[in-house]
Design goal:
about 180 residues; mainly alpha; about 75% helix
């Protein structure tokens, strides 16, 4: 019956929305309030990290567990490529405007060459964020790729856990789409 199906989809949407919102809050608070007690550069870095971790949480929160895991692998792979390129650059040179398009282009090229062309946009976005963050905190520029990888890992872990919880809460099977 269409009315029952619509009611079920509405229930799933409400639960998923609430679970994702709570997961984003937990992610942001963890990265901006708890992790700085372990390692802190500046409040600006903490906030960029919180934003980046929340984006990772949202990125991997998908309609099936398999889709969430696939998105997690994609996000980590793209971030790893960006980490290597940005760290190699920032270890020797400060942020320069010309480096932004060069490293974005290289990140896209690398993910294509390693057989992950679907990760190109994510690698390019990650590279842009890391380089701009290094411009915001030039005294700690070389640490930005490492910090953004850590933020990504936190966000991905919470996002995958939230997706798993969402599937359980809505009564969906791990591999089934809504």
């Amino acid at each position: 019956m269409p009315n029952e199906h619509h009611h079920r989809l509405s229930r799933i949407a409400i639960l998923d929305s609430a679970i994702l919102a709570i997961a984003c809050l937990i992610t942001f608070m963890l990265v901006t309030d708890l992790l700085p007690r372990v390692y802190h550069l500046s409040r600006a870095d903490d906030l960029i990290g919180g934003l980046w971790a929340v984006i990772a949480t949202v990125f991997v929160f998908r309609d099936t567990y398999q889709h969430s895991m696939s998105a997690a692998v994609s996000r980590i792979a793209a971030t790893a490529v960006s980490l290597v390129l940005c760290l190699a650059y920032l270890a020797f040179l400060p942020f320069r405007t010309w480096a932004l398009p060069v490293l974005i282009g290289l990140s896209v090229l690398v993910v294509y060459l390693i057989g992950r062309p679907g990760d190109a946009a994510t690698a390019a976005i990650t590279t842009a964020v890391v380089l701009v963050a290094s411009a915001v905190s030039p005294q700690h520029a070389w640490q930005q790729p490492i910090l953004r990888l850590a933020d990504t890992v936190v966000g991905v872990a919470i996002g995958v856990a939230a997706a798993w919880l969402g599937l359980r809460a809505t009564g969906q099977q791990a591999g089934a789409s809504a």
